[in-house]
Amino acid sequence: MNKVIHTMIRAALAVGLACSSCAPAIAASLDTNLIVDPGFENVDLGTTEGVYGIPLLVDWVGPGYAGLHATGWPNGSLAGGGTYFYGGEHAISQEIDLSSGDTATVIATGSAEFEMNGWFSGFSAQSDYATMFVTFEDSVGNPLGSPYSIIGTPATWSLESTTALVPIGTESAVISFTQTGEGWRDGYVDNIYFDLHLAVIPLNLQVNTLNGEMTVLNNDLLSPIEFDFYEILSSGNSLDAVLWNSFDDQGLDSIGGGPTESWGEGAGSGTDVLTEAFLLGSTTIGVSDSETLGNGYDESVNAKDLIFNYGNTSTRRIYQGVVSYLDLGDMNGDNNVTLLDVPLFIQALVNRPTYDSAFPAIDADVIGDMNQNGTFDLGDITGFNALFAGPASASAQAAPEPTTLSLAVVLLLGIAIRPRRRV
């Protein structure tokens, strides 16, 4: 993929500037900026601050005043930014109603998550800065826990953000700003954002350490997951761009033949990073579904250090996915082969549906196939037993002697598969 296009995708995910001409947000909506006048553009030119003559912000309790982005300002300006919260000796706030509609429904289940971000700056080399807070309150205005905050930078304009779960019982959120510094405090703020959304179970990147196969899984039992960007990072150079079967290679969900109409590999993909983006489309992985990325993991290096990030420009968020490694005999997927895996090995052999239900991200046919003959069956018991024969078992518990373990496995299997007597 063209490097400029890929950079645009990454920037769009991270930034998502507020629209000053958009209609006021509806407080009951999810995945929507709930702040009225997030760009600080609605001003009263007839009411100005006494020192600098800057106009009053209309939609904020304060008072607060707006400065104008100007060329040549010491710490720069945001292109097309119009006006911004100028700071001074003023604290401002805005209350958002979350007591009805979709927001109230999700909050009551404990699965509501918020995202808050904004652009912050200061004046020249001064150390003044603004802090943005969100305080969640109950039906009578009592705060539920401590406020969450973003401490702005006193330097060049930069985007800062935070996210966390919303407390059960929340009926409103108060967005507020304070200033830190001396005299006229130059903590500048612009293009802020606050939304509530359903907290999702992240995508899972399953890595087979035997053959290097990587699979993206959706383990969320309720919702499909849509994304148009991902990156896999490895500081230990455990990636293989040659055997990587990218979504671009597969033509996954392509909507045309143009460079922006399908997934495109990011420039620089190699042993330390594999990345793709889809500028004009996206891919949705359904509940319990998956998509393969080929053999993009170098099992000969096997550093087990992968970081998996993915995102969606429509929701303006980047998530860190879960990375799990499939090792022979690691039946619970905790990246260690211990005595805890013994009953699960047995369960997978004699009651596969129960095992699959408990560990949907683990393929027992792969990690249980100890003799590598392509079949997971009783013939794999000897190989599983051999994992505990070495002097350094991964378990903190004392492992039984190999013969004892094999006998125990066989006896348990016999009990599990013994036919029921007729009466």
Describe the structure.
It is a single chain. The protein is α+β, with helices and mostly antiparallel strands. It folds into 3 domains: 15-198, Jelly Rolls (Sandwich); 204-326, no CATH class; 341-417, no CATH class. Helices cover 16% and strands 28% of the residues. The chain contains 8 helices and 22 strands. It has helices at 3-14, 101-109, 247-250, 341-350, 352-358, 364-367, 381-386, 402-417; strands at residues 43-48, 55-57, 66-68, 83-85, 92-97, 112-121, 129-137, 148-151, 158-165, 172-180, 188-198, 204-208, 214-217, 225-227, 229-233, 264-265, 273-277, 283-285, 290-292, 307-312, 317-320, 322-326. Strands 16-17-15-20-21 form a 5-stranded antiparallel sheet, with helices on one face. The protein has a 4-stranded antiparallel sheet with strand order 5-10-7-8, with no helix packed on it. Strands 19-13-12-22 form a 4-stranded mixed sheet, with no helix packed on it. Strand 12 and strand 13 form a beta hairpin. It is elongated. The N and C termini lie far apart (69 Å). 34% of the residues are buried.
Short description:
The protein has 423 residues and is of the alpha+beta class.
Give a quick set of tags describing it.
5-stranded antiparallel sheet; Jelly Rolls; 423 residues; alpha+beta; 4-stranded antiparallel sheet
Record the SSE blueprint:
Blueprint: H1 3-14, E1 43-48, E2 55-57, E3 66-68, E4 83-85, E5 92-97, H2 101-109, E6 112-121, E7 129-137, E8 148-151, E9 158-165, E10 172-180, E11 188-198, E12 204-208, E13 214-217, E14 225-227, E15 229-233, H3 247-250, E16 264-265, E17 273-277, E18 283-285, E19 290-292, E20 307-312, E21 317-320, E22 322-326, H4 341-350, H5 352-358, H6 364-367, H7 381-386, H8 402-417
Helix pairs in contact: 4-5, 4-8
